[in-house]
Amino acid sequence: MIEDPASRDHEDHHLQLRNLHHDDYEDVAEIMNQVYAGMGGAWDRDEFNALLARFPEGQIGMEDKGKVVAAAITLIVDYGRFGDHHSYRQITGNGTFSTHDPTGDVMYGVDVFVHPEYRDMRLGRRLYDARKELCRNLNLRAIVAGGRIPGYRDHANEISPEEYIELVKRREIRDPILSFQLANDFHVRRVIRDYIPDDDASQGFATVLQWNNIFYEDRSPPLIGEQKTNVRVGTVQWQMRRVRSLEELMQQAEFFVDAMGGYNADFVAFPELFNAPLLGFFDQGNPAEAIRGLAGYTEEIADEMQQLAVSYNINIIGGSMPVYEDQKLYNVAFLFRRDGTQERQYKLHVTPDERAYWGTVGGSSLKVFDTDVGKIGILVCYDCEFPELSRILMDKGMQILFVPYWVDTKNGYLRVRRCAQARAVENECYVAITGSVGNLPKIENADIQYSQTAVFTPADFAFPHDGVAAESTPNTEMTLIVDLDLEKLKELRNEGSVRNFRDRRLDLYRIDWLGRNEDEDRDMEGTQH
């Protein structure tokens, strides 16, 4: 077998990303003289030394066996001083780099250059990634750069710069610089003239490009009470069993709240209609009357659950409970916050079974709830099977979706599970589902249950390969405890391999909420305790 020389040469490389040093000048000048042969070539040594003296952390090089073969040059600027109508000389202080401002808000990309012999090794991408990492670490709001468009010279007699840029965006034309910058998540803010007047290839034009730091914090974090980015979620796979009193039911609930609180969980989630064992107190010959009798316990249970949330310092997703008001029966999920407040999410879509046996009706409001650890949504069982609802919640900033459910068969469970997992993927959020197991003999319409509690994630490299953070043993009373990183959601929505949130074709379709929110005021009654 004959060895490929190119393959051997590639194996001989020893690449290292590092900051530039003063003694790297000769290597940098060699690259610049080749890349900018028609535009003045390299900076002089004094300019290079001034750059390193002002902002050494921002000058990044790629070394191969002791020789710098690529570099990214950056400054920090107060971008308000310059705005979008600036030139290369202005933004660099006529080559003195005196415009560098350690208290500025923007990292400015002065230059990226790669030795011609290394252009097939994608070193530019590594340098751009290093810039982004530095921008995040320094808590700067964005990277801005003036981007040359050297391919425009071949089209200048036919189309305007704006038309050229649009064609590059649509991949009808490839520009050696702009195409690369767009592929690295920069967007074009505007076109400027005379950015580098002697740049004949770009005809003097340039783009102002920007990459936004989604982790930027525009204020100093509080010393106490800073919002967490890692959220611990606990779920309860609840065993349905006959109880002799409300007190016995609440002892069972407190046991799980206590356990989750002991693990410092931020949330504990209970299933849909977890208080169904109390149905045994009522006449089973009339299921509609029995469920309305069960609704008579809801406010008392809600008060006790609210006290548990405060006492054990944990936010409780109180599954759901029947609420009877204005001669209408609703299935209502509860959020009991650990700060002493509570809110409600009415189930919007009732199943044929709920309607036939109990006469349940759907609510008409959909909410995202603010908590001390992020924005959450709650969809009760069947509601999860309607993707429009979770998309609306995502538009309102939802990060975690809770789905309390109650199903009797595995096929019913799989409908909930698979829809919930789809909601996690398409909305780039976490979804926690939990249900009940066991049986309630001699209670009409509540005979058996099936459940396998789970927490789902989006589908990308930063998450489990199957999109399942954790799942329980089927049909066994148990809990799950899962840590969820909210920062990963931010990164996914802006830099993921696919970006469902950003890539929606809102020019072609959208989802509008048409509900009159008739129960909005009613939902808010009694939310402060």
UniProtKB/TrEMBL annotation:
One Pfam family linked to the record: Acetyltransf_1
Signal peptide: none
Alphabetized PROSITE patterns for the sequence: CN_HYDROLASE, GNAT
InterPro entries in the cross-refs: Acyl_CoA_acyltransferase, C-N_Hydrolase, C-N_Hydrolase_sf, GNAT_dom
EC number: 2.3.1.-
Domain CN hydrolase stretches: 231-486
Alphabetically ordered keywords of this record: Acyltransferase, Transferase
Keyword Acyltransferase recorded: yes
The keyword NADP is annotated on this UniProt entry: no
Top EC class, one word: transferase
GO-annotated molecular function: acyltransferase activity, transferring groups other than amino-acyl groups
Domain N-acetyltransferase span(s) in chain numbering: 15-172
PANTHER family, per database record: HYDROLASE YHCX, NITRILASE-RELATED
The protein, known as: GNAT family N-acetyltransferase
Organism lineage string: Bacteria, Pseudomonadati, Pseudomonadota, Gammaproteobacteria, Natronospirales
